[in-house]
Predict the structure.
Amino acid sequence: MTINKMFFAIPLAVAAVFAVAQQEAVTDFASMKGKKAVFSMVTSEGKTVTNETLKGKVVLIDFWATWCGPCKAASPSVQALHDKYGKNGLVVIGANAFERTDPDGAAAGYAKEHNYTYMMTIKNDALAKSWGIRGIPSFAVVGRDGTIVLAQVGFSAGKTDVVIENAIKGALGTK
């Protein structure tokens, strides 16, 4: 193969791979509903949690950041859901993403400051992007079978929290 042909073939190959990857990427978080949740996150204590380690559990994942006003407004509701349904098998994860200041310590500091007891994970930017999340807060409720039963963007007190709670109750099989 001549040098000219190589310079032509390499960009074509790269473009073809990129096009295939783009087709497989999720472009809209709402389209995650009904799909299997595949994730690997690191807690603020350094432990890894994955969809496999939480198999059979109902999981609420809250994608958030400390600089996000609506995210901070949602946190007390997320804690209340953890308090109310944790004993029934709900696992709540505060998936810190798009953090602007201290991606290693902001989540733990925020949780400690506000006495939040649900699990905090850090550096979830890549996961959020792969799930098509473009705005936060974004919430996913994962059923016991690993399927996302709710993909919700934004928070409005008295509305969003009710939608999330109803999805959790449905996934847990409680009333």
Strands lie at 40-43, 48-50, 58-64, 90-96, 119-122, 138-142, 148-153. The longest helix spans residues 3-24. The first strand starts at residue 40 and ends at 43. The mean pLDDT is 87.
